[in-house]
Amino acid sequence: MAALAATPRPMIWLLLAAAVVISALAVSYSVHQARKLTAQSQQMQREQYRLHTEWGQLLLEESTWGSYARVERLAREQLNMKQPSNNERVVVRP
């Protein structure tokens, strides 16, 4: 009985070798995917930062273009509008 256990079984060794090779390939693929996803994550973070900066600039530009002083100046200069006097105002009551 002890002699049977001591004899090498080629099928077991072949299966173990195949399992080791498959495991090594799986680890290699897993590391490759992790590196790829890390690079993609870093790229997305850079894009997020760029978009956040652009959003801040657009908010600043919007507040500049929509300021009351600018709108009033353009209304006076380009549309020839003016503030109505008291006798030009009409109050409509329901």
TrEMBL record:
Its main location: membrane. InterPro entries: Cell_div_FtsL (IPR011922). It is a single-pass type II membrane protein. It is found in: Cell inner membrane; Cell membrane. It comes from the Bacteria. The keyword Cell division applies. Keywords: Cell cycle, Cell division, Cell inner membrane, Cell membrane, Membrane, Transmembrane, Transmembrane helix. GO terms for biological process: cell division. It holds the Pfam family FtsL. The keyword Transmembrane helix applies. Essential cell division protein. May link together the upstream cell division proteins, which are predominantly cytoplasmic, with the downstream cell division proteins, which are predominantly periplasmic. Belongs to the FtsL family. Part of a complex composed of FtsB, FtsL and FtsQ. This is Cell division protein FtsL. The lineage of its organism: Bacteria, Pseudomonadati, Pseudomonadota, Gammaproteobacteria, Oceanospirillales. The gene is ftsL.
